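Re: that chain you flagged

S.,

Sorry for the slow reply, it's been a week of failed gels. I finally had a moment to sit down with the sequence you sent. For the record, here it is as I used it:
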Amino acid sequence: MTRVDFEELTKKQIALAFLLVILIMSVQILFIRHIRNIRSEIDASAQENQLTEKIFRAKTDAVSRYKTGFNIDNAPAPSEAESATMFYSILINVLSTTGFEDASVIKVAESKDSVSFKVSGEAGYFPLLGLLSSFRQSSYLIRILNLDLTGQTDGYVGYSFTIECKISVPEPLKTEKNN
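Prediction finished late last night. Pasting the structure tokens below so you have them in one place:
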């Protein structure tokens, strides 16, 4: 390395050296800013990744809870009602607990293995959907037939449907023949 005597340098050389130092410092500052920006982007990406993982875990847990809550493989199959009277009392109980105590319930048909009731009245549309949903969740073999809706004002509908339930048929008594 050689020694530089500043007295021998011209003003032009000093200015050039000064500009070179300023240029090198500017490049270093820009490089440091670039590194900081990249570092902040990496940190933001890492935080976004953690947030995405938490959301994924939460959704996975929710799906697991729904699957265990809706476990069809271990759920008991719908059963038949013991009698027409028992199904009628269940139907009246469901109607009264869901706010349909003013509904008209008339027996339409009864056979040895089923009974049908016609339910009619007026109610709000969404409460009626809730009632029909509660029938869907029943533990008895039922089906809804002849659903008829008539639109009215302010979200009310006139409704009429027939609900049919399977009734368990008692086994015939075995009689012994005496010889």
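What I noticed first: The radius of gyration is 40 Å.

Talk soon,
D.
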